[in-house]
Amino acid sequence: MTIDLLYKDRIILGVTDDDATWEGADRNSLAMKHKEKIVAAVLKYQKETNWKSLLIKTGIAIAILILLVVLIHFLNKLFHWIRQKIETHGALRLKGLNIKNYALLDTDREIKIFIVLTRIVKWILVLVVVYLTLLLLFGLFPWTKHISEMLLGFFLKPLLAMIRAVIAYFPNLITIVVIVFVFRMAMRGIRFLKMEVENESLGSSGSLSNLIAGLVLTYMRSFKIGDRVRIGRCH
Fold it and tell me: How many domains does the chain have?
């Protein structure tokens, strides 16, 4: 048998014995549960779409748009002021970029680079403000909430993917840090042995000195082609 939930003469939902078995309840209680959910959703939609609620949300939307215009105007003023400061004081504060005697960037080019960077930062901030404004506007009204969720997903999905990638790579990062640390300590130990051998304070005679000297000559590459060396009395 089936219990039908009706709205006027239209069947909204039918609840069968199989549905009740899958839910672990009897047919009547499951039908009542679905009815309560439908009624709550309808009441919520009616509350969100009545004229009073829509009027308030429209006022909020207008206020958000006004705030957007004010913020963009403020950003334009702020970055215009920053540009003027760079053009006015840049020649006094910026000395260019020199590598030894070669001038990689002179002062004028450095000023232009800073101006371009400030322009890029300004447009990034404007896009962020517009993006947040669209999220708020589309989230106000029931029939545009899915657009707000979609826009939010454009930002959250890549962010969550980056966080998961960092977390997944973290054990490998620890391994790399440990390897680098061990390698650095080993290199310090080898350099210490080399210095001790060169100062004749460790293994100055006998098999130990020969062993250490052989390791140093093999792995530290103390000599290269063209060097003059002395072996006994021979040069």
Answer: 2
| In 21-101, beta strands by DSSP E | 97-99
Our measurement of the distance from residue 169's CA atom to the centroid of its chain's CA atoms, rounded to an integer in Å, reads: 14
Question: pLDDT tens digits, residue range 72-118?
Answer: 999 999 999 988 888 787 666 666 666 666 666 666 777 788 889 99
The DSSP line for 86-101 is HHHHHHHH---EEETT
Last residue of a domain, one of 140, 167, 200: 140
The pLDDT mean for the chain works out to 78
What's the DSSP call for residue 199? T
Q: Do the Cβ atoms of 60 and 140 come closer than 8 Å? A: yes
Q: What is the largest CA-CA distance in the chain?
A: 116
Any domain includes 31: yes
User: Tokens 């403000």 identify what position?
Assistant: 129
CB-based contacts of 216: which residues, under 8 Å, 6+ apart? 190, 193, 194, 197, 222
Amino acid 7 reads Y
Looking at residue 203, its pLDDT comes to 47
Residue 134 corresponds to which amino acid?
L
Dump pLDDT digits (tens) for 165-179: 888 877 788 888 889
Question: pLDDT digits over 12-47, tens only?
Answer: 777 777 777 787 778 788 778 877 888 787 777 777
Residue among 170, 74, 87, 64 at smallest CA distance from 125 = 74
Q: Do residues 58 and 135 both lie within one domain?
A: yes
**Which of 140, 172, 203 marks a domain boundary?**
140
User: In what helix (H) or strand (E) does residue 29 lie, and over which residues does it extend?
Assistant: helix 27-49
